[in-house]
Amino acid sequence: MSDSWAAVATVKAPVEEVLSFAAWHLELGAARLHIYLDDPEDPAYPILKAHPKIRAMQCDDRYWRRVARDGRPDKHQMRQTLNASHCYNAKNRHDWLAHIDVDEFLLPDRPVAEILAALPPDVLSARMRPMEVLARPDRPEEQGPDAEGSDTEAPVHLRAFSLPLAQRHAQTERIYPEFGAFLNGGMLSHVAGKLFVRRGLPDVRFRIHRVLSAGEADPGQQELPEIPVAHFHATSWADWQAHYRFRLDRGAYRAELKPPRRADAGSVNLHTLLSTLEDSEGDPGLRRFFDEVCADTPALRDRLAAEGLLREVTMDFAALRARHFPDVGA
Fold it and tell me: What are the start-end ranges of the H helices in 140-255?
């Protein structure tokens, strides 16, 4: 016996990345993908629309007049949560709905539908914790022997983290000697993860990492360790730099967020840490942070492995795109 599942995402990314996201989750057995295109003119739209298991929505002015009282929200986080809520309440017909981002990929240890079907009926939301992908180094001397070959041939390395907080903080400081005291599990984006939500809950309102149903937060929640989420937060130094300013101003490093180590006296958030590094040292300071925390180096892999927190997976996106979108590029 298994449960059907769907996923919803608001996307704004290059076509190839959108198709990789879709192909990965179709391969995992998603009965439906609800993809909301933040750019209504996104060139991925006709490709997605043609697939029988994908429902693509162009988020144009007409759409936003129907969904939001004041039209299109300025903050992308609000657009994401409104779209997920719209999907759950108006469009989803499957047993479970996951709200994830275009740079997040489920990594189940067995079929997703099987895992969800095994959950007790009183579990109404199931939390998937993230693992961040380590960034491929661009300095030849940092690349280990397994870095040879194409992106589809080389393994993807990820950092996990421990749930018990004291253990997590101790491990973080051992793994990241200079910056660990400012980090929560070494994660730059979030540790909260994302949710699967069971069908049939009343008045569902998604948040980025939570869900409300009739005002109750995360009803019937259970951890779902069988399905971690691979988060491609930074794939290279150039990629991290390209997203850095937006994240500092409006994203994962914005000023109003609480410090990752909020219980520690003198702890600062990533906005303050990174801004201070940039103001005092410029790009070399940011690069030092990136090299210790993000870069997929043998030294970091060894430290993660010593703590039991290194994961490795092969993700052949090119092959999956060819399988699920065979006409693209033909």
Answer: 165-175, 237-249
